[in-house]
From TrEMBL:
InterPro entries: Calcineurin-like_PHP_lpxH, Metallo-depent_PP-like
Annotated family: Belongs to the metallophosphoesterase superfamily. YfcE family.
This protein's name: Calcineurin-like phosphoesterase domain-containing protein
Organism: Devosia chinhatensis
Domain Calcineurin-like phosphoesterase residues, every copy: 15-146
Pfam families, sorted: Metallophos_2
Recorded superkingdom: Bacteria
Length: 181
């Protein structure tokens, strides 16, 4: 694949996943420290907007909301979020989330170019990915911090990132401190 067709990551690119806006079941399932879903959603929006500027790019690695959340609630939270939002589709991202929200792009899998490598984005954690044997990285969601990240594979889900979006630089600094598996 030619690098000319790939998006280049810079300091204005953020990565996050598994926000599960409006999904009351996520509070118990992922042991999220919130008294209710409204407090959860307000805090995630506030933390996102404290970091992300309106012209920044945010790669959401899936599961924006819960399956049973009314679309108008999902859309209200989505509109509050700063940034140019791009979706990597997760298992809870139904047709309305994929097609009716103002995403700059919607993909099942996407490869980006970073400083010295490529980064493969997918909602699901992969054991190997294109470029795996060349030193390329993989960012994912889905696991809710149940599978340890490594020097090459990072869980971008909010459960693993203190409920915050993170930049490539922030993520790779943390990855460098992890075991090489």
């Amino acid at each position: 694949m030619s690098n000319a067709n790939l998006t280049v990551i810079d300091h204005r690119h953020w990565f996050v996943g598994d926000t599960h806006f409006g999904h009351t079941g996520i509070l118990d399932m992922a042991a999220r420290p919130y008294p209710g879903i409204k407090a959860h959603d307000r805090d995630l929006v506030r933390k996102w907007n404290d970091l992300v500027q309106p012209r920044d790019t945010v790669w959401h690695l899936g599961d924006v909301a819960g399956d049973d959340v009314p679309f108008d609630e999902v859309a209200t939270n989505f509109k509050r979020l700063h940034g140019i939002k791009r979706l990597i589709v997760g298992n809870h991202d139904g047709e309305e989330v994929r097609t009716k929200l103002d995403w700059a792009s919607v993909d099942d899998i996407r490869t980006l170019v970073a400083r010295d490598c490529k980064v493969v984005l997918c909602h699901y954690p992969l054991m190997e990915w294109e470029g795996y044997f060349s030193g390329d990285l993989h960012f994912h969601g889905h696991t809710h911090d149940r599978i340890p990240s490594t020097r090459r594979r990072w869980d971008c889900g909010v459960d693993h990132q203190s409920f915050l979006p993170m930049t490539f630089s922030q993520i790779t600094k943390r990855m460098a401190m992890l075991q090489d598996v």
